[in-house]
Amino acid sequence: MSAVIMDGKALAEKVKAQIREKASKLRRQPGLAVILVGDNPASQVYVRNKERDCAQCGIMCYDYHLPQDASQEDVLDLVEKMNNYGAVDGILVQLPLPEQIDERVVLEAIAPDKDVDAFHPENVGRIMQGQAYYKPCTPAGVMEILHEYGIDPGGKHCVVVGRSNIVGKPMAMLLLHENATVTICHSRTPDLKAQCLQADILVSAVGKTGLITADMVKPGAVVIDVAMNRNEAGKLCGDVDFAAVSQVASYITPVPGGVGPMTRAMLMENTYKAAKCRIPK
Ligand code: NAP
């Protein structure tokens, strides 16, 4: 059997076109402030991609680049300014931040109604309660992919590998809210293979190339690879051994071209939602 490859890139293009259409009907352009601190090359690429997505969706991107040695105060001042800036609907602080800055303090300083990444404790709490206005971008992107391919998590056993605050935990919550039975695995899970073999839907969000092999996947399972790793040749890849697992799974996301583009599309969707709420009709 050869799995259906779930095309996150094509879906993201479709979603972004819909956002452009919706955004054009608002009385002003939605605005997203993107704050980058320091010189992390990967972060610079992510920020450039976000600028491109904004342009595609008709969203105004306000870019702020602070130096590597910026103080926590500098970042908090800028966040405060963006909280009060009328043309800015959403604020994104690109992570990771340099070590002198406490990430938690910065994320908590973002006004919850502009927190389009959904990392503020108020929004995290709403996610737990199933009352999220902003869904966290990566898990929301995964859910959109499942919906697009007609895969209903309801009544299924979903295994999420990884328990980070930005991916694993909220991923488990979104699946739970759609009536899945969810198991969360992590680095201290004793027998990962046995857990993964239980999965009707397996989501891997670890960051270890080759972690998920074909013998860990139940025949016919849906496999979602969230990870973005570099292999020895420097090529972008996920956690899943794609070639072998695609012979066992029924559906699978590729890396690149799977969850990554949908994460970015969901950021645009959240920015549109933020604007819609703030702009008078
Ligand atoms: P993270 O904060 O480093 O979390 C990794 C998780 O994996 C942790 O919960 C860790 O367990 C668990 N883990 C580590 N080794 C394991 C093992 N051998 N078996 C089972 N679990 C193990 O990473 P993250 O921020 O969640 O990101 C995860 C991956 O997704 C990375 O590759 C990242 O680049 C990618 N990512 C992709 C997107 C996208 O748009 N596609 C967005 C965000 C992140 P402990 O908690 O016990 O340490």
Q: Secondary-structure element sequence? A: EHEHEHEHHHEHEHEEEEHEH
- Read across the widest sheet, the strand sequence of neighbours is 1-11-8-7-5-6
Secondary-structure content class = alpha/beta
State which percent range the strand residues make up.
Answer: 15-25%
Distance between the termini: 51 Å
Sum up the overall morphology in one term: globular
What Rg do the Cα atoms give? Answer: 19 Å
**How many strands in all?**
11
H/I helix tally: 10
Word description of this protein:
- With 281 residues, this protein is of the alpha/beta class.
- It is 40% helix and 16% strand.
- It has a 6-stranded parallel beta sheet.
- Helix 2 (41-57) links the parallel strand 2 and strand 3.
- Helix 1 packs parallel to helix 10, helix 6 packs across helix 7 and helix 6 packs across helix 10 (259-278).
- The chain is globular.
- The relative contact order is 0.18.
- The mean pLDDT is 97.
- Bound molecules: NADP nicotinamide-adenine-dinucleotide phosphate.
- NADP nicotinamide-adenine-dinucleotide phosphate binds next to helix 10.
- Residues 138, 161-164, 166-168, 185-189, 192, 205-208, 226-229, 259-260, 263 line the site of NADP nicotinamide-adenine-dinucleotide phosphate.
